[in-house]
């Protein structure tokens, strides 16, 4: 049987269209990645879909802009100017991160404290010239810390002379939220960003499944994997930045009561929740609190999930995250303690 030529042309066109749309679909699912160094840490942005390349370029620019506003070590940043005695607007990027930081200070009973910088400076963590300060030096620095040293008047923040702010414990989380907002505004539906262990996701993976985020183990490399939908997975650990002197290890997360590295029994804390900003501040705060106090705090704040690795190898995990956590082979489930609500 012979058909008119027209039919063959139409059939061929339909086949080509089907092939093209399939190609376009798979092409749209290809990950587009942008990796660079910013905010003192390696950054990887991964986004899916045809809009990803342009969106990633804008997102990198945005992260660099945030760094230039809130990094304490970038001269001329709003935070550096505030620390040098200038007034800065409360509605700029730095002002908004600062407000979030003080809110988290309140929420964590002072375990997270953005005014600790005078003490942190003594240890040389930002300069790389590591020293162990004397008790007297630390006490002098601690007198400059606390929320009473910052003022907000007529839309401007200012600090008492000698007091200094540091957003190092919240800034990368804030940037991760801003990155996701930027990607979304560019039409991206599926993305994952990682700023040195501060992971934030947008939507689900292109096939609709959840994201798998690795949690680092300072000993074996990988503690386990958490599966999450849209949200934040943020880790703070004492193995990130530290130095050793006379056989003692000193790290960059300080106890606001002593000005010394927090020795609370935690090795690392991973926090999950909606907001990267809050999870970042919280991972630092829970590290300071230690497993026991941290578990108590988490019981009264059920919207967060957490995995706390203790010094003795115990892994504390909140009930709401227990099913989403798969431990790596090197760690055994018998080391796991579920924090019951
Ligand atoms: P990382 O920066 O390695 O991801 P964190 O999010 O825990 O780790 O932030 C640690 C940083 O936060 C320190 O380098 C310092 O700048 C700051 N910091 C240290 N101790 C505290 C604290 N108790 N509260 C708030 N910020 C802190
Ligand atoms: Mg943090």
Write structural notes for this entry.
With about 350 residues, this protein is an alpha+beta fold. Helix content is about 35%, strand content about 25%. Strand 11 and strand 12 (about 250) form a beta hairpin. Helix 2 packs antiparallel against helix 7. It is globular and about 55 Å long. Mean pLDDT is about 90; it is low at about 15-20. Adenosine-5'-diphosphate binds next to helix 8. Magnesium ion (MG) binds near residues 280 and 281.
Q: What key phrases describe this protein's structure?
A:
9 helices; 341 residues; alpha+beta; binds adenosine-5'-diphosphate; binds magnesium ion; three-stranded antiparallel β-sheet
- Secondary structure tally, helices: 9
Distance between the termini: 73 Å
Biggest sheet strand order reads 1-2-6-7-10-13-14-15-17
Poorly predicted segments: 16-21
Strand content: 25-35%
* Bound chemical compounds: adenosine-5'-diphosphate, magnesium ion
Helix content: 25-40%
Helices and strands, with pairings:
Blueprint: H1 5-28, E1 31-38, E2 41-48, H2 52-70, H3 78-83, E3 88-89, H4 93-107, H5 117-123, H6 135-142, E4 150-153, E5 156-159, H7 171-185, E6 191-195, E7 198-202, E8 211-217, E9 221-228, E10 232-237, E11 242-245, E12 248-251, E13 266-273, H8 276-299, E14 305-310, E15 315-318, H9 319-322, E16 325-327, E17 336-339
Parallel strand pairs: 15-17
Antiparallel strand pairs: 1-2, 2-6, 3-5, 4-5, 6-7, 7-10, 8-9, 9-16, 10-13, 11-12, 13-14, 14-15
Helix pairs in contact: 2-7, 4-8, 7-8
The structure holds adenosine-5'-diphosphate and magnesium ion.
């Amino acid at each position: 049987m012979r058909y008119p030529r027209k039919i063959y042309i139409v059939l061929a066109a339909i086949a080509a269209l089907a092939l093209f749309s399939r190609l376009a679909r798979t092409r749209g699912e290809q990950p587009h990645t942008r990796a660079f160094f910013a905010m003192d840490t390696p950054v990887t942005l991964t986004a899916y879909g045809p809009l990803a390349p342009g969106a990633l370029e804008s997102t990198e620019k945005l992260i660099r802009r945030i760094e230039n506003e809130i990094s304490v070590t970038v001269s001329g940043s709003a935070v550096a100017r505030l620390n040098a005695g200038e007034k800065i607007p409360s509605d700029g990027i730095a002002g908004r991160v600062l407000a979030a930081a003080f809110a988290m200070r309140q929420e964590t009973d002072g375990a997270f404290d953005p005014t600790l910088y005078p003490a942190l400076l003594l240890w040389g963590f930002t300069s790389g010239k590591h020293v162990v300060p004397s008790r007297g030096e630390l006490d002098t620095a601690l007198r400059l810390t606390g929320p009473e040293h910052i003022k907000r008047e007529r839309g401007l923040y200012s600090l008492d002379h000698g007091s200094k702010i540091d957003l190092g414990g919240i800034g990368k989380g804030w940037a991760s939220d801003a990155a996701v907002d930027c990607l979304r505004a560019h039409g991206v539906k599926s993305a994952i960003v990682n700023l040195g262990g501060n992971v934030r996701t947008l939507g689900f993976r292109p096939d609709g499944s959840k994201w798998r985020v690795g949690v680092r183990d300072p000993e074996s490399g990988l503690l386990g994997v958490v599966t999450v939908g849209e949200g934040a997975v943020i880790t703070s650990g004492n193995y990130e930045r530290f130095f050793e002197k006379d056989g003692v290890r000193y790290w960059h997360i300080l106890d606001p009561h002593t000005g010394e590295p927090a020795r609370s029994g935690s090795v690392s804390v991973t926090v999950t929740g909606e907001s990267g900003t809050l999870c970042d501040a919280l991972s630092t705060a829970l590290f300071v609190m230690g497993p026991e106090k941290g578990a108590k705090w988490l019981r009264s704040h059920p919207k967060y999930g957490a995995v706390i690795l203790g010094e003795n190898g115990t892994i504390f995990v909140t009930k709401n995250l227990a099913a989403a956590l798969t431990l790596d082979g090197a760690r055994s489930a018998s080391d796991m303690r579920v924090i019951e609500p």
